[in-house]
Predict the structure.
Amino acid sequence: MLLLVAISFSSLAAFAAEQSQQKNEQKPEKTSNYQPLIERYILDELRAVRQDQLILRADMEEKVAHAKLDASDRIIRYTSDTLNNMFIIITTAASILVLMGWRSMRDVKSKLNEVVETKINELTQEYEDRLAELEGKLRKRSQEIIDAQEDISKSNELHSIWMRAGLENNLHQKIKLYDEILAINPTDIEALIYKADAAYELGDYEWAFSLANRAIDQDEDYGLAYWQRACANAANGATQEAISDIKIAIEKAPKLADELEREAAFEELHKLEEFEALKPQI
C-alpha cells in the first residue's frame, strides 16, 4: 500500500514538472503595448504642427494683404489732397496777381505755370519719398514675417526629430537622427554630445573623442562636453587626460560630481587617489 502511494506521488510530481516546463516554453515574449500609442501620438503631434503652420501662413498673408490695402488707401487720399491743394494754389495765385494789377495775361499765365509747376514738383517729390519709405517698411515687415515663419517651421522640425531620437533604441538610427538635427542647425552642441555618447556606446571611442572636441570648440564653458571627452579618454586608457577633463567638467557644472559613482566609463578610475578626491565629501 505504501509503495502504491509513493508511486502515485512521484507520478504527480513528474506530471506537474512537465506541465510547468511546457508553460515556460509556450510563454510568449512580452512586448510593449505602448509602441503603437507612442507612434500615434507622434503622428498626431506632427499633424497638429502642420495645421498650426497652415493657420499661421493664412494669418500672415491676410495681414500683408490688409497692409497693402491700407497703403493704397493712403496713396489715393494723398493724391486727392494734392489735387485739391493745387487748385487752391492756382486760385490764390490768380487772385493775388489780379490784386497786384498785372495787366499782361501772358505774364500772368507764365507766372502761374511756374508757380504751379514748382509746387507740384515739390509735392510729387515729397509723395515719392513717403511712398518709398512706406514700401521699405512693408518690405522689411514682410521679410520679418517670413523669417519668423521659417524659424517656427525649423523649430517644429527639430522638436519632431528630437522626439524620434528619444524613442529610438537603435544606436545607428539615433546617430542618423542627430545628423539630421546638425544638418538643420550645425551649432547644436546638444546634438553633438548625444551623438558622441552614441558613438561611445557603439565602442568607437576615437569618434566619440573627436565629437567631444568639436563640442568644446563651439562652447568652452559647456561642462558636459568635457565629461564626454573624459569618458572617451578613460576608455582609451588615457587616465590622466580623463582625470583632467573630469576636473574641468565639474568646475563648469558642479552637479556632475554626483554622477562620478554612477558613471560606468570611470570604473577603472576608482582605484586612483586623484579620482577619489574628486568625489563630493558627505
